[in-house]
Records
---
Amino acid sequence: MSNKLQELTERLYNEGLSKGKEEGEQLLARAHDEADRILADARAEAEKILALAQQQAADLREKTASDLRMGSAQCLQATKKDIENLLVGAVSAAPVEKSLGDPDFLKQIITTVAGRFSASESADLALILPASLQKELEPWLAGELKKALGSEVKAEFSKKVGGGFSIGPKDGSWFVSLTDDTFKALIAEYLRPVTRKLLFG
């Protein structure tokens, strides 16, 4: 009887041990599968993050390169413009200022321009002249020009005019500007294309 009890005990123990071992192996296999799945998910997520980071880095690199290209093109254009302005200014400024600051030259031009107005228009003329030439031009305006036109011309001497003059009706409805600034602008318009071609091809 004790043998049978011992056999039964051993059989129950072995069956329990076998069943526990089998369940343990199943749990271990499930744990391995879960670990493999978690690892695969983590790898996929890491690859996704890496791909996104690489794409963002490539986009940033392209945007930076584009900004640098645009910035350097604008800088080059501005530098060319500055060089062009300096050269055109240097070429045109001195001769224009010299001519339009010469009282005799101005007298000739004013007489010619004023003489083109009709008798009724010349009676109503106004001039703006450089303040620096007031001493030289004031007596001439009251004498020779008044005599040539047959009427007095209203003249204003302005510090804003460096050289040349503006002429037109007293009512200010229109005027002809022959100041050093307008001459420089006019000459610069003709010089710029030639200068640009010579400098930059």
Note: The domain at 96-200 is CATH 3.30.2320.30 (hypothetical protein PF0899 fold).
---
Amino acid sequence: MNEVLELIEKKKVEFAQLPLFKFLVDDTINPIERVSWAPCFAPFAMMFKDINAYALRREPADSAIQEMINRHSYEDGRHWRWYLEDIENLGLDEKLNYSDTLKFLWGEQTKKTRELSYTLFALCINETDLMVKLAIIESIESTGTVALRHFAKLGEQIQEVTQKKCRYFSGYHLKVETGHIQGGKTYEETDDFLRNIQLTEEQKFKAFSTVEIVFESFSESMNEMMAYVQKNSKENHQVMTHA
């Protein structure tokens, strides 16, 4: 598994260079504007609950690793509540009525984020090899670590402006993430455990392939949200120019 973790680290470094993350830390832009893409994230933030409950979790667990995955699924599967809290606190749920919301969530502007959710669900539910499933989880966790590190400072700045605390887009979320699967061990214990797993060549090949798919899917979603920001900024500028 050590080689798989090295690939994940390489992809993580590349992922961190995406335009959306540079946008998130641009202090010249109002922090509320920097999180304006949050509604686009709904298909993933809400679907992640189901990915954990129905695609990752297997009860009763028939192995120590499945038990580890189950514990992780309960931890990660509850963060959608924080997302909804933040959407409300940021005033973002006041802009669309129900039918407009449905059109938006299943429209072109969230297409890649829906595809990300479907891809992750399919990978997790169809993969029977727990070693490969661990590689999928580790890839997801790595993308999350990148995003949450950017959210941490942004959450503080949002609180300064709104006097309201964020829990999803904030350091609060980062504090409960270890960067590894959360199976009741410390980061160091989990890291040692994963690196000492010996994979067959077939497992390695499948793990490498799924890591690439996970990062590519997340990258497309992040780029889609950046495109949403740019489109809205352009439209707002045109409105102000013609006002």
Note: The longest helix spans residues 201-242.
---
Amino acid sequence: MALVDVSRLPHHVAVIMDGNGRWARAQGRIRTDGHAEGSHAVRRVVRAARRLGVRALTLYAFSEQNWNRPRVEVDTLMELLRDYLLRERAELLEHGIRLRAIGRRDKLPARVREVLDPLERDTAALDGMVLSLALSYGGREEIVDSVRALAAQVAAGRLAPDAIDEPTLASEMPSLSVGPVDLLIRTGGEQRISNFLLWGSAYAELYFTDTLWPAFDAPDLYGAVAAFQQRDRRFGRVPSDVGGYAGPLAPHGLPQAGE
């Protein structure tokens, strides 16, 4: 098992959970079985991240483009999401985990929102790890929605166009309320970010693994964090004198003071 320095953890870890279908195929099972097994991996990784001390974990649970999948698969994913929220409610509350959803949540079925909305409210004041589920989410879509919000403020006379800068735009992006991504993990062997947290991942360290999501476990997370701690995060500067970890980013996407 990889050794992790808990004093130098990434603040915000994001995961593209890929490989459910291929895992099921390798087991001679149907795709929906892979999604069901993937929900168990979510529980394992949330627990491992919390115990490790990660402050923010964002999981790519359902993309805006996933609505184009076969209806039976979408319905299964929505039912698995609802079951997960019901099943994990007690554990989230017990361990002080704040749950939130990012994305175009108005497109989620009512049966999901009727479970999701109360859980968000009931965990809103908790001060433990923040667990963000990206649901009906797309990075491009988030940027477009944020620009529209600013444009509405300009049209209403509440905001001057020349007052819009990077921090102003970033402040309209829900994914950035926990800060930019420090470590972006993708399972399943593919090496792309698939429209996930595009703005927040501008300076993220990318970690790709061949492990399929249903097989991803705590040691895999520790390995990704250990690899992150070996990176020299320069943010456009010259190489550091000491190398290695250079600290998390401030909410506006630039290194924190003193880093």
Note: The helical segments are 20-26, 31-52, 71-94, 110-123, 139-155, 166-170, 218-228.
